[in-house]
Specification:
Length: 341
């Protein structure tokens, strides 16, 4: 019995040592890969993919004796409709932006925009599918500016919103010459919000002092730990109003037919309501719109993505998991404003 227990303990000790070696190798490999910052470019011909899937579906519906033949026997009209070998047609380029509160995908979006500006030809369109509840001002300000570069380059831009483009998400969307929204897509929320918890009274009850030193009258207006003043609160409110005015001006310059005072209350609207308010131009899903575009021109989806490290592939990137969980909690709290309207 004692010999058996000894072997068992030895086995678990060896298993632990192997696990430590593997985790150390993963950590070293992750550092090396992170320093390289490798990326991969994914390009999908959406029209070709749709035709391939349709061929498979039609083949499945055909009698058994004809299966396997139909995809290879096309009439000249079908070939022409598919646009095979026709490089003269203009192209529609599709970008996707799924934004969190920090708009962490903005750097990738910037590089994708640069690629399209360098590659797209005259007459090409850019379709951006946006899904974002908004977030921090500076990050979404950059994201909006990146989309504005497409206009400066003379490219026709269309934004499709299937779920939500609110606050900073709408700040991005309003750069498009055309905004298409799904029937229940959440649009608007042209407003600014700041929420700061304060535990000063709790600390005071426990005789805990917090010393704050600043150089500059308004270096800190309200704080989490210290005692806030009316002057600090007024200054924060003034800052929020200033940002709100800039937000309104930005939208008004790009959606000139909108009654900006009527839509800048922080409210959100859905589908047809957003069109009636002038915040969007048409009600349709992105899939329906892309199907229409694919019948007229070539459509390519373009996406830059980071090559995952070994630790990320094996699920050991704990910091990324924690960050994603915190972002999700904050987004759920923010989205609760309209989900149960």
């Amino acid at each position: 019995m004692e010999e058996w227990l000894g072997e068992l303990v030895t086995f678990f000790v060896q298993l632990l040592l192997v696990a430590l070696v593997v985790m150390g190798a993963i950590a070293l490999g992750s550092r090396g890969q992170k320093s390289e910052g490798r990326e991969q470019l994914q390009i999908v011909d959406l029209g070709q993919r749709q035709r391939r899937l349709r061929a498979r579906l039609v083949q499945a519906m055909s009698p058994k004796r004809r299966r396997g033949l139909w995809p290879f026997k096309r009439s000249s009209d079908e070939t022409k409709a598919a646009g095979q070998g026709d490089d003269s047609r203009s192209t529609a380029w599709v970008l996707d932006f799924h934004g969190n509160l920090k708009a962490s995908g903005v750097d990738r979006l910037a590089r994708e925009v640069s690629l399209l500006i360098d590659t797209a030809r005259e007459g090409d369109d850019v379709i951006v599918r946006i899904e974002s509840p908004g977030g921090v001002v500076h990050a979404y300000g950059q994201a909006a500016a990146e989309l504005d570069r497409l206009n400066a380059a003379g490219l026709n831009t269309t934004v499709c919103v299937d779920k939500v483009a609110a606050s900073g998400g709408y700040l991005m969307a309003c750069n498009a010459k055309r905004i298409i929204v799904a029937p229940f897509a959440v649009i608007g929320s042209i407003g600014v919000v700041a929420q700061v918890p304060n535990v000063h009274r709790l600390l005071k009850r426990h005789d805990i002092d917090v010393e704050l030193f600043t150089a500059g009258r308004y270096k800190r207006t309200v704080t989490v730990l210290g005692e806030n003043t009316d002057e600090g609160r007024d200054k924060l409110q003034q800052d929020l109003e200033n940002i709100h005015e800039r937000f309104k001006s930005y939208v008004a310059e790009r959606r000139t037919h909108v009654d900006i005072e009527a839509v800048s209350t922080g409210e959100v609207w859905y589908g047809e309501e957003a069109v009636a308010k002038g915040l969007a131009d048409e009600v349709a899903t992105s899939e329906a719109y892309l199907a229409q575009v694919m019948s007229e021109r070539r459509v390519f989806s373009v996406k830059l993505s980071s090559v995952p490290t070994l630790a990320q592939r094996l699920g050991f990137s704990s910091s990324a998991v924690v960050d994603k969980a915190l972002d999700r909690v904050e987004e759920r709290l923010d989205a609760s404003r309209w989900e149960h309207r």
